[in-house]
Design a protein that fits this description.
heterodimer; A: mainly alpha; 8 helices; 64% helix; B: mainly alpha; two-stranded antiparallel ribbon; 2 strands
Chain lengths: 206, 521
């Protein structure tokens, strides 16, 4: 938890000693964020519970609990578990003497967060994936994949061998499109217009 | 009868095509388990689209073999590089890597592979012998009992919610809720589609599972940064030592007979528990192996002793086979990966359950035969795989992750050929990453996602047949026992953490007095 004299940060960009993704650890990066995630989930449960009213009257017979029963039961379980979770986090914070920090909404220090190259890579990979998906429909898998592979590898640090990078993108993209679409008959996006025409020509050629 | 069908299963595998697929799956599974960033679960999910081009027995034999081989494969990188290639190997590195550092690499690898094979074979034998009996009993189950079984499966997610039952329950509830989206199973009216026609057919398993397991893993590796492989590299001297012999002499393994006897059964039983799986098997196996070892050995666990490698490796592979018992006989996944296998079966129009062994006997016994063979296969292929692995790990990490992301996209699109699934995959991937670091169990989410759509129709049909009387779930003895057991099992981890609960555990020898005192201070 942050010291009062320090600006509120989610992370400082420093590498923690704890591996939070280790299945044997129970620690979390930020107890305050953990608490607010729990609160958000409780609120979302409530909102969704209200929205189940739209189909609450749907039932197949007099004795059918109805279409809303099961989702409502799930949301009640989620809310109760969420409350217990929030309480557990509160209890731990109380033991650590950091209860007052919990109720302050987490703020996000953009500069501090992006000072960590790992976080930068994290965001770039997500943006690249979104870009890939935006491209894949109009351009098709065959033409979208090589630039994606190259951009992704470059982003992650493979920068010293541009020719290898180019070969990697083109060969892998072509090979797997052919393998899936032409050999295994599993549909891949073919793109539109000229790109679609070229994709079909490649598949037919193979 | 069992032997005849098992023979038929073996005959299915020993055809040129099926055997080639078996070898491919064995190799791929071991590599996937060994390469950090990949896993058996991810590989199984990625290959589900490929199964549509195969006959069902071969397809599911392939997926099962990948799973079983990957459980062993994780120990390779755990021992060589102190990085568990798959989560079931997380305990193996505690002693395996120190053994490597002490120059006992061949002993560590040999112990791991033989222990894995032993545990896997015992688990597979129990699976083969008891599945038909369990299936026959399960044929007498009615809707309320079936629902009670699934309810029991859901309750057991509390055992996989390490450190937080509440978070595991939230994760399971999220999975259950995702399964609600789409058409109501009885009335066929849209629910929670928010006017979107894309959501009318519901949320498909594949993109969600790819997102929460595969994309989140890639994001975790990418954000973690640094070198994928740390610590001592494999030197040419170590490699020569490793390949001097396939296995240590068989007499060497006599020292593990108690561990093998206990942990192979224990691991299988843990694997049978829905929600537990190979990782839980490994954790229980390590701690039990420590407990049943002589005092002078028990004290050395964690310093680099072969018992520390044998204990988790026997259990995790036994648990892997055990996880198939509830999957095939009751349609309840025993682990995250078997939850994915359940999804794959459903996608192929197969509903696992009591009738599966009689209706899909060829498929089931081909899987059984595959699970037996894979444990022999790891013994044979271990040395070349380790050799290949030391070369494959030289593939730059950047290229490897790019490839994995491409495979994930291909796998997600192949499910329904719609872009919506790709967006769902990315979204659930980011959510899955944060669930991972904030200790929300992804396996619990998967179990909820897969079991929820099965549970709801059973529940509602039960209520309709019982004219709205909720006591239908406790009228019949089987469902009553299961319902009460579900409540007890769910509450047990919570009660264990109370002061009284910890005292009981101390009396049973499950917790040391020092740990008890630390907690009460």
């Amino acid at each position: 938890m942050s010291d009062e004299s320090q600006p509120d940060v989610e992370t400082t960009g420093e590498e923690d000693e704890v591996d939070y993704t280790d299945p044997t650890t129970t620690e979390v990066p930020d107890a305050r964020m953990d608490f607010w995630i729990a609160i958000v989930l409780i609120v979302v449960s409530g909102i969704l519970f209200v929205s189940t009213g739209e189909f609450a009257g749907i039932r197949t017979s007099e004795y059918d609990p109805g279409a809303a029963f099961w989702p409502r039961a799930i949301l009640v379980v989620m809310a109760v578990a969420g409350i217990v979770n929030a309480f557990n986090i509160y209890k731990r914070a109380k033991e650590d003497g950091e209860v007052s920090d919990l109720f302050v909404m987490p703020s996000f220090n953009v500069g501090g967060w992006f000072a960590d190259s790992g976080n930068v890579r994290f965001v770039l990979v997500i943006l690249l994936s979104i870009g890939y998906l935006l491209l894949i429909y109009p351009v098709g898998f065959l033409f979208a994949t090589p630039p994606f592979l190259m951009a992704m590898a470059w982003t992650l640090g493979f920068r010293n061998r541009p020719i290898s990078l180019l070969a990697f993108g083109v060969v892998i993209g072509f090979t797997f499109h052919v393998l899936f679409a032409a050999i295994l008959n599993i549909a891949m996006p073919t793109g539109t217009g000229w790109f679609q025409e070229m994709t079909y020509r490649v598949e037919n050629f193979v | 009868m069992v032997l005849e069908q098992l023979g038929a299963g073996f005959a299915n595998i020993f055809t040129p095509y099926a055997f080639a697929v078996f070898l491919f799956a064995l190799t791929l599974g071991m590599l996937a388990g060994a390469i950090p960033g990949m896993s058996g679960l991810m590989t199984v999910v990625l290959l589900i689209p490929v199964t549509f081009a195969m006959d069902k027995p071969t397809a599911f034999m392939m997926l099962s073999v990948i799973y079983a081989a990957s459980v062993y494969g994780g120990s390779i990188s755990a021992i060589l590089f102190r990085v568990p290639g798959a989560s079931p190997a997380v305990m193996t590195l505690l002693d395996g890597y120190p053994m490597n550092q002490q120059g006992k690499l061949d002993e560590a690898i040999g112990t791991a592979v033989f222990s894995s094979a032993f545990g896997g074979i015992v688990g597979a034998v129990i699976l083969i012998l008891f599945s038909p009996l369990l299936a026959e009993w399960a044929l007498n189950l009615s809707d309320p009992e079936f629902f009670a079984v699934i309810f029991f499966g859901l309750a057991l997610v509390s055992t996989i919610g390490r450190g937080s039952v509440a978070k595991a329950t939230v994760a399971m509830a999220i999975g259950l809720f995702l399964g609600v989206i789409g058409f109501d199973p009885l009335a066929a009216e849209p629910r929670l589609t928010f006017g979107s026609r894309l959501l009318l057919s519901g949320v498909n398993f594949i993109p969600v599972l790819l997102g929460v397991f595969a994309v989140s893993e890639v994001l975790k590796q990418v954000r973690g940064g640094g070198e994928m492989i740390g610590g001592v590299q494999s030197t040419s001297d170590s490699e020569k030592s490793l390949f001097r012999q396939l296995l240590p002499p068989l007499g060497y393994f006599k020292r593990f007979k108690r561990i093998y006897a206990v942990n192979s059964i224990l691991g299988t039983l843990i694997g049978i528990l829905p929600g537990a799986g190979a990782t839980a098997g490994a954790i229980f196996g390590y701690t039990f192996g420590q407990r049943i070892s002589p005092k002078e050995i028990r004290e050395k666990f964690g310093t680099g002793i072969p018992e520390g490698v044998a204990s988790p490796e026997v259990s995790n592979n036994a648990a892997c086979s055990g996880a198939f018992i509830p999957l095939l006989t009751l349609g309840i996944p025993g682990s995250g990966t078997t939850a994915v296998l359940l999804a794959a079966l459903i996608l192929h129009g197969i509903r696992p359950g009591p009738a599966m062994i009689s209706v899909q006997g060829e498929l089931v016994y081909t899987i059984f035969a595959g699970l037996l063979l894979v444990n022999l296969g790891v013994l044979v292929l271990n040395r070349p795989i380790v050799k290949v692995f030391t070369q494959v790990r030289h593939i730059p990490r950047e290229l490897l992750f790019s490839l994995i992301m491409m495979f994930i996209v291909m796998g997600a699109y192949a499910a329904r050929s719609i872009m919506f699934d790709l967006w769902l995959m990315v979204l659930t991937g980011v959510i899955g990453y944060y669930m991972l670091i904030y200790n929300y169990s992804l396996a619990a989410l998967a179990i909820g996602l897969v079991l929820g759509p099965i549970a709801e129709p059973q529940f509602r049909r039960s209520m309709v047949k019982a004219t709205g009387d909720f006591t239908v779930f406790i009228d019949r003895p089987v469902s009553a026992v299961l319902v009460f057991a579900s409540v007890a099992v769910f509450l047990l981890p919570l009660l264990e953490e109370t002061p009284q609960g910890r005292k009981v555990r101390e009396k049973l020898g499950l917790i040391s007095p020092e740990d008890l005192m630390e907690d009460t201070e």
